[in-house]
């Protein structure tokens, strides 16, 4: 969004507002923003055009008020998107799905996409989902247990508070990791790595544990290779090209980016896993969660940001 959006003046009529929003939507779609993402970026364009200031998500009733400035303008913009895109605003509002084991059973955790501050918590009462609005001084909240697909109340009632607290910690851990992953530059390797991790999770849900382990290996491998490529560092593509420890060592040596060897080892598997090596759900989960651990280590390393900035300046971040 480096190109500044401009518009002559605040709209004063419905027709002028309609023209403004059509231009805003065209601008945002040009940045490859998905439909559900666009309303959250409208404020930036309003600010560029008018020096606008206000709430990103104002109370919806303001859309019925006269005028086209401040929170009223943004409320009308949200209503415009609701009318124009409808249910498309409600789709793809997840960063991804990740597997978790509770009571010896694998469950699918839906990782929601949020903007701004959110209070994540757990409540054993699954009817309490949290707050989705931002009225007054309160912030949105989410009962993370309600994001576990088909989790029954009976199991929650029988699960210890300690284990449920672990579920909460895992949810936030996975969310931060996927959020960081999704914000990486769009390059061929990094895009493939995103898809590989998603496939790993889906394979676990489908009870394809060997395939899940291999896709976790591939997600880790292509993430490391993707960063090395952005850093201008050559790596092996044959022979030891699948050696995660070797790739991690190279990333540390050349760019000061360190990932604990235990996390790397947990994601590593042999190529035989694709053909004749039997795997268990526990092994698949370990590998899948190790990829999240790699995301977490990279997210918290300041040298990764330096690598990305230097790579962009050197023209090594090439779009897909």
Number of helices: 11
Could you say which overall geometry the principal axes of the C-alpha atoms support?
globular
Beta-strand content estimate: 5-15%
Measured between the Cα atoms of the first and last residue, the distance is 18 Å
Largest β sheet strand count, sense and barrel closure: 2 strands, antiparallel
Overall number of strands: 4
How does this model look, in words?
This protein has helices at 14-30, 42-50, 70-85, 153-158, 161-182, 188-205, 209-230, 244-255, 261-267, 281-299, 302-313; strands spanning 94-102, 105-112, 119-121, 141-143. It has 320 residues and is mainly α. It has three domains: 14-90, no CATH class; 93-174, no CATH class; 184-320, Nucleotidyltransferases  domain 2 (Four Helix Bundle (Hemerythrin (Met), subunit A)). It is globular, with a radius of gyration of 23 Å. A hairpin with a 2-residue loop joins strand 1 (94-102) and strand 2. The mean pLDDT is 92.
What characteristics describe this protein?
two-stranded parallel sheet; 320 residues; Four Helix Bundle (Hemerythrin (Met), subunit A); 11 helices; globular; 4 strands; mainly alpha; two-stranded antiparallel ribbon
What's a quick, concise take on this entry?
50% of the residues lie in helices and 7% in strands.
Write the layout of secondary structure elements.
Elements lengths: L13 H17 L11 H9 L19 H16 L8 E9 L2 E8 L6 E3 L19 E3 L9 H6 L2 H22 L5 H18 L3 H22 L13 H12 L5 H7 L13 H19 L2 H12 L7
Parallel strand pairs: 3-4
Antiparallel strand pairs: 1-2
